[in-house]
Amino acid sequence: MRFLLGMIAFQQARPPQGYEDLFGGKVVATILIVDDEERMRHLLSIILSRRGYKVDQAGDGLQALEMLQSAPYDVVITDIRMPRMDGVQLLKRIMELQMPCPVVFITAFATVDSAVEVMRQGASDYISKPFEEDRIILTVERTLRFSRIMYENRELKKELQHVAGGDEIIFLSKEMASVMDLAAKVAERDSVVLISGESGTGKELLARYIHRTSPRRAERFVPVNCAAISPNLVESELFGYEKGAFTGADKRTIGKFEYASGGTLFLDEIGDLPLEAQAKLLRALQEKKIQRVGGNQEIPVDVRAICATNQDLAAMVENGRFRRDLFFRINVFPVRSPALRERMEDVLPLARFFLRRVSGAMGMELTDGACRVLMEYNWPGNVRELANAMERAAILATGKGTITAQDLSFLRTTIRGTSESVTYKMPPEGVSLEDVEKDLVKQALAAAGYNQTAAARLLGLTRAKFRVLMKQVMR
């Protein structure tokens, strides 16, 4: 996408040569030749036009800049020394205006120093006069490949922003849309947020999104894994300690609360905090003051707390394993991060995102068979498992360019669902099988949020078989 329309606005993206447009047609690359010598412009135009490129001409950098601001170009080939605005000044203006258009310099004044300088300033390539036709074509083709990569990166970023509430929160499902709506609303306030959900559902990503969209976005986001801290080090980790507070405390050290002051403190797996530490955490959240271990001074801290857990804190309160007062203090704004099996519409967008991330420029794709395997799997490890699965599949499929069902065969051998068998005891008077099936279909749809794919999985059916059953029993 080129950043044009005058000096600051955006213009519609147009892919370079070799890309298909929305209607399946090929888009021809357009090249702008900038040179004050008409003979040189004419010669380059003939060479490139014979290869099928669309070519425009400009007599100097100023004219070229005006043309760039009114139409998109895939490559600029420019002389260095020209009147009014030379090639180096033109490159500088292209960079300042954020026009991601590769620039190739061509000049008779070729020296190593000048080549290094223009490349350092952002030029894509450098050719000296006199030149051979093959060299020009080779340089243009190489530069267009670079232009295509720039286009792909811009389009991928635009696509991810379209489907994601944050940089890495990919979703299409209404379940995640609802969660992101809640996150966006609470981000504007300083309320404590409690994010619950299974391991691997992206609770920290959600917390980071809340921070990024909050008034505290310019300050630190400090994550703390409460489960990873030794019980006897929790207080010093959270609140810091004074010199001499204990053996080995050879200097004053600030804790996570002080370090996060002004920003957001993310307390992950908060259910694993020891009870004694819970009491001190409650006071810190209520009073917004802390005391370092071994110290007497009360230190004010300005933090926004976001907590996360994969445990049932309410049940832990009833069992005496979590403080009731702390639970009420952190449960101001609860947000539940749904399991991946509850938002199956997001599986394929997420899979493609992870695949692009691990395959890079290779651009690996999913076959229809691979998509079916991904959609039929239960994902007990949630999004984290999906990310790992795509990395493993990409390794297995190295050199093929596509991920097939065979590359994902390791998912089919993984135990899914629960290990407990469900039995049904028929009453003496018998039952209506049609009524039972109808009731099960309704229950499955309700449990899956009326997602047919997820409902089918709950009944151990493919989506196609479930739809047939649903039509039979719901008519």
Notable traits:
475 residues, alpha/beta, Rossmann fold, Helicase, Ruva Protein, domain 3, 4 domains, 5-stranded parallel β-sheet, flat, disordered N terminus
The CATH C-level name of the largest domain is Alpha Beta
The class by helix and strand makeup works out as alpha/beta
Instruction: Estimate what percentage of residues fall within beta strands.
Output: 5-15%
CATH homologous superfamily heading of the largest domain = P-loop containing nucleotide triphosphate hydrolases
How much helix is in the residues? 40-55%
CATH T-level fold name of the largest domain: Rossmann fold
Tally the structural domains.
4
**CATH architecture group name of the largest domain:** 3-Layer(aba) Sandwich
Largest sheet: 5 strands, parallel
Number of strands: 16
How far apart the termini lie comes to 50 Å
Largest sheet, order of strands side by side?
A: 2-1-3-4-5
Tally of DSSP helical segments: 19
Question: Mean of residue pLDDT?
Answer: 81
| Net shape | flat
What's the gyration radius in Å?
30 Å
* Spans of at least 5 consecutive residues with low confidence: 1-27, 157-166, 414-422
Describe this structure in words.
This protein has 4 domains: 30-161, 3-Layer(aba) Sandwich (Rossmann fold); 174-338, 3-Layer(aba) Sandwich (Rossmann fold), CATH 3.40.50; 341-412, Helicase, Ruva Protein, domain 3 (Orthogonal Bundle), CATH 1.10.8.60; 433-474, Orthogonal Bundle (Arc Repressor Mutant, subunit A). The chain contains 19 helices and 16 strands. The chain has helices at 38-50, 61-68, 87-96, 112-120, 133-163, 174-187, 203-212, 234-239, 256-259, 275-287, 313-318, 324-330, 347-359, 368-376, 382-396, 409-412, 433-447, 452-458, 463-474, and strands at residues 30-34, 54-58, 75-78, 103-107, 125-128, 193-196, 221-225, 240-241, 253-254, 264-268, 289-290, 299-300, 304-309, 333-336, 365-366, 402-403. Helix 6 (174-187) crosses helix 7 (203-212). The two termini are 50 Å apart. 36% of the residues are buried.
